[in-house]
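Ticket #4471: structure output looks truncated?

Reporter: J.K.
Steps to reproduce: submitted the chain below (230 residues) through the standard prediction queue, then opened the result file.
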Amino acid sequence: MSIVSVILAAIAPGVALLAYFYLKDRYDTEPIHLVGKMFLFGILLVFPVMVLQRAFVHGFGDDPLVFSFLISAGVEEFLKWFLVYFLIFRHATFDEPYDGIVYSVAVSLGFATLENVFYALLNSASISTLLMRAFLPVSGHAMFGVMMGYHLGKAKFNPEQRTRQLFYSCFMPILWHGVFDYVLLTAKTYWIWIMLPLMAFLWGRSLWNVKRANARSPLRVLRREERVEM
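Returned output as attached by the reporter:
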């Protein structure tokens, strides 16, 4: 398989998942250039993450529990959260709860896409391997992004719960990302029997979050009123 084919196969899952969640915005889709910019920031985030993770491995060692929850999930999800919070949370385009999901997923999938390209090139990955990675790490990053964005949306539009929801928006992706990595690192021979129900749960929870975020949109009420007036 040519290098171009490998790169395209590695990029496709992230782009497809981003398009899926982008189109799930029922009431007011976000500016595509801003979503693309957050996707690009997610790609660029890979490089500082690599440096920090290497430094933390030297400092803390490679114990599976520490690596999964602190070095891998902790570093990656905190930096994604940092980007979305400081670039988007107070942005004028963030005008309904679902927007948090769109931008968080864009950053997460930008990160996952370059990570997938690196893996494919460095390991001469086959199509079957890339399909498996599309189902596991790439879609996993998307699910963690949905969690993050869902709670950021709740924080944005529920001022009385802001502190708690901001905490959840960072903590929940770290927790589930850590669980995901820990299973892969420790369940060497039977990981698939844990990972399948885990991914089913994460997808189910994410789709519920998508539905709930859309249901809380203030634009939903406006659209309903417009239909009544007509």
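Triage note (M.O.): checked the attachment and the full token line is present. The chain has one domain: 3-219.
Status: closed, working as intended.
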